[in-house]
Specification:
Elements: H1 2-9, E1 22-27, E2 30-36, H2 45-53, E3 61-64, H3 78-85, E4 89-92, H4 104-111, E5 115-118, H5 122-127, H6 129-137, E6 141-149, H7 167-177, E7 182-186, H8 187-193, H9 203-209, E8 218-222, H10 237-240, E9 243-248, H11 253-260, E10 265-269, H12 279-288, E11 293-296, H13 300-308, E12 314-320, E13 346-355, E14 358-366, H14 368-376
Parallel strand pairs: 3-4, 4-5, 6-11, 6-12, 7-8, 7-11, 8-9, 9-10
Antiparallel strand pairs: 1-2, 1-3, 12-14, 13-14
Helix pairs in contact: 3-4
């Protein structure tokens, strides 16, 4: 199963809107076939592994990180191929969260006389979390990331933010960028930082990850009225092709045409009560484009809105051992905030570790206390 998980890790961020899955065929204690989900819409991991195994799949065991599919969506059911190959035992790490499958794949295999054994792992569960969010909520899985000083600032009073986090932390973030489908920022952050939102890993770092090649992740800016300056890096030919600008319904056709002329994609969505492009509608529009995992990198207003709308699933925070002060220096999260500490957004599955000189804090967002406070209100 660990070998199957390694196969799945190699295609993380490369299979959307399908989950990254790994599969291994074992006969007489030897791996005779291995594979991972192909880019859309190629074969599933089981088919790749079975094809490699060929006739050696007869009476062999199959280890797979996700329950084999039993329906035809873009490819035929994997259960049929497993049965036809003569597999005798299947070891499954995780049942499929897709309601169209959700245990039915296992039932089909057992009905054909194949012995199915559950072998759950934390890694397999983590790998399909973005797919689970995507398939059950109709929006992408959202990971929020920010770096701040020890006193909670993301920039100085003069706007200087380079670099708060150290080189090890920045490398970790670029590796994360390489595992998501899109990187999302607000228009103000785009204007101030003129960010490129690219993956910058050395060949050596790429070799360590052993991930397959792929197009760059989508670069996404929410700009409600479409007002972005012409010199913006994301509007230049080198980056525009993989850039999406999300605008509100009040954005004029003239402004949309101006953006389209740069070669970017423009996605109009409904406005919220404040007159800005609705964040949830924006995420749903991205899901409609097959984007399954979004990395939200700011700014503060967008992060605050995402927390308040309960659209953030995971958080990654880097805390640098430096104090810069300044009552007007910006902090990571804006928005309305909560009135009482007990109603704040907390982190489950908390992990705290060293990242060079920084401290990295990661976890999944727990909205229970916040939800209770808003229900009572």
């Amino acid at each position: 199963m660990q070998q199957a998980i390694i196969q799945a890790y190699r295609v993380e961020g490369r299979t959307s809107p399908r989950p990254p899955v790994g599969a291994v065929v074992v006969r007489d204690g030897h791996i005779v076939g291995a594979g991972a989900t192909a880019p859309p819409y190629g074969p599933h991991a089981e088919i790749v592994a079975l094809t490699m195994a060929g006739t050696q799949a007869q009476n062999a065991d199959l280890y797979v990180t996700l329950e084999p599919c039993c329906v035809t969506i873009h490819t035929p059911p994997c259960t049929q191929a497993i049965i036809a190959a003569g597999i005798q035992r299947v070891f499954v790490a995780q049942t499929d969260p897709n309601p169209l499958v959700a245990g039915r794949g296992i039932t089909q295999l057992e009905a054909a006389g194949i012995s199915v054994h559950m072998q759950p792992t934390i890694e397999a569960s983590q790998l399909i979390r973005p797919f689970t969010t995507y398939i059950t909520t109709q929006r992408p899985h959202v990971t929020a990331k920010w770096a701040m000083t020890l006193d909670g600032k993301i920039a100085s009073i003069a706007g200087d933010a380079r670099w708060i986090s150290g080189p090890e932390s920045r490398t970790w973030v670029h590796d994360l960028r390489d595992r998501v489908d899109a990187i999302l920022i607000g228009a103000n952050t785009a204007r101030i930082d003129n960010a490129q939102l690219t993956v910058r890993l050395t060949p050596e770092q790429q070799a360590i990850s052993q991930r397959t090649t792929r197009p760059a992740p989508w670069r996404v800016v929410i700009a409600s009225n479409g007002d972005l300056p012409e010199p913006l890096a994301l509007l230049q030919p080198a980056l525009a092709e993989r850039t999406i600008i999300i605008v509100g319904e009040s954005c004029t056709q003239q402004q949309q045409q101006r953006l389209l002329a740069f070669g970017v994609r423009v996605l109009p969505v409904a406005n919220d009560a404040t007159g800005r492009a609705d964040l949830l509608a924006a995420l749903q529009a991205l899901a409609g484009e097959g984007i399954m995992h979004v990395l939200l990198e700011g700014g503060a207003q967008l992060l605050g809105s995402a927390f308040e709308q309960m659209c953030i699933d995971d958080a990654v925070t880097f805390i640098a051992p430096i104090v810069i002060g300044g009552a007007q220096a910006p902090t990571a999260i804006a928005g309305r905030g909560v009135a009482q500490i007990q109603h704040g957004w907390s982190l489950d599955h908390l992990r705290v570790q060293q990242s060079g000189a920084d401290v990295m804090v990661t976890g999944t967002i727990n909205y229970q206390a916040y939800l209770q406070s808003t229900t009572r209100a």
